[in-house]
Amino acid sequence: MPETTAPVTAAPSAPAGVVVTESAAARGRRARIALRGLQVLLALFYGIASALPKLIAHSSAAESFDELGWGRAGMYTIGALELAGAVALLIPVLQSVAAMALGALMVGAFVVQIAVFDGQYAATPLILIVPLALIAWARRGHNAELLRLLRLRA
Question: CA-CA distance, 37 to 48, in Å (whole number)?
Answer without folding.
Answer: 16
